[in-house]
Each structure stands twice: as structure tokens, then as C-alpha cells.
Amino acid sequence: MQETAFTLFGAGVSWLEVVAFTLALGCVILNVLEIHWAWPLAIVASVLYAWLFYANRLYGDVAVQAFFVVTSLWGWYQWLFGRRADAKGAAAPLRIARLGGRRVLAVGLLWLAAWPALGVALARYTDSDVPYFNALPTVGSFIGQVLLALKFVETWPVWLVVNAVSVVLYASKSLWLTAALYVVFGGLAVAGWLRWRRLAR
């Protein structure tokens, strides 16, 4: 899997990255369309990306992928069997919804607080050469994944920020195919945001 499949911008792209790229792209497309088969794709893609990121000393991203494996099992269950109170207070199947202003603020403050804390941990306990840069999208990915599993519209602007930062991060590591994937993810985040906002109405 670590053998070079092709060269992009002077850097070798492994078969591992190609397969992880393909599965992750399929996963996000299915997420936008609210199709639950996104979750098993996410599990396999996350295992492969954890391997790739470990090889590139992106330990925050390794943690994200491990988190994705666990939360993808939970997210799959939520999308199939999850329930939330409807407008009348009765339990109803989980549908796309909005967080509301107060909870959006709380999520933003959590992200801002956890980012430097994780950066310190990565700087102190790993040999990462980009601890704070890696920490920003890592924390955002944790938040975005939970919001996605619970079908909150606000997952998509979170992913938009994560994707924008990740493009630069992966390009700095010459992971060009993955950087390109996150450009595509950015476009899909916009599409998901527009679609889910419409469905939430």
C-alpha cells in the first residue's frame, strides 16, 4: 500500500493515499445526500488515513481518524435509529435541524479553547513539526463529526473551516492528493450547507 502509484508535483502518491482518497470522497458525497452508507465508508477511510498520517507525523490527524472510527459507528446508529424531540416535544426520528445561536456560540468557544490546549499537548508529547497548525483542524474535526452524527446544519460551516486549513496543512507535507481532496471537500461542504439548510426549513 505504501508503494508509489504516481507522482504529483514532484512527490510520490502512494496507493494507500489513493484508496483512502476514493473512500473518503464517496463518504462525504453520501453525507451531503444524507445516505447512511457514508458511515461504513468513513470507518475504512479513517483507518487508512490514520496509517498515512502516522507515516507523515501528523499525530493530531491520527487522533482524528481514530475518533472518526468510533464516532462513525455511533453516527451510523444515530442515522438509522436516533431520535430527537420534535416541535411538539414527542420523540421523532432524527432529522436535520439547527443548533440555535447560544449553542453555536458554545461550540465556537469550545473550539477556540481546545485548539491551543491540543497544540501544547502535540508540541510536548510528540515529534510533530506543526503542532498548533495540526491542532486547529483536529479540534474542528472532532466538533464537526459530532454535529454531523446528530444531523445539525452547522456541521457544514465547521467542515468548511477544517477543509480550508487542511488544504494548506497537507500541501505543506506534500500530500498533494489529500490536499486536493480537501479542496473538493470544501465544495461539498458548501453544497451540504445549502442542502441541509433547505431541508431544515
Task: Explain this structure.
This protein is mainly α and 201 residues long. It has seven helices and four strands. The longest helix has 25 residues. Helices cover 73% and strands 7% of the residues. The chain starts with a strand and ends with a helix. A hairpin with a 5-residue loop joins strand 3 and strand 4. The model has no long low-confidence stretch (mean pLDDT 91). It has one domain. A two-stranded antiparallel ribbon has the order 1-2. The chain has a two-stranded antiparallel ribbon with strand order 3-4.
Outline the fold blueprint:
Blueprint (H helix, E strand, L loop, with lengths): L3 E5 L2 E4 H18 L5 H18 L3 H23 L1 E3 L5 E3 L7 H25 L5 H19 L5 H18 L3 H25 L1
Antiparallel strand pairs: 1-2, 3-4
Helix pairs in contact: 1-2, 1-7, 2-3, 3-5, 4-5, 5-6, 6-7
Tell me the major beta sheet: 2 strands, antiparallel
What string, H for helix and E for strand, traces the elements in order? EEHHHEEHHHH
Terminal Cα span: 45 Å
Strand order of the largest sheet: 1-2
Percent of residues in helical segments?
Answer: over 70%
Work out the helix count: 7
The count of strands amounts to: 4
Count the domains: 1
User: In terms of structural class, how would the helical and strand content be classed?
Assistant: mainly alpha
| Low-pLDDT ranges | none
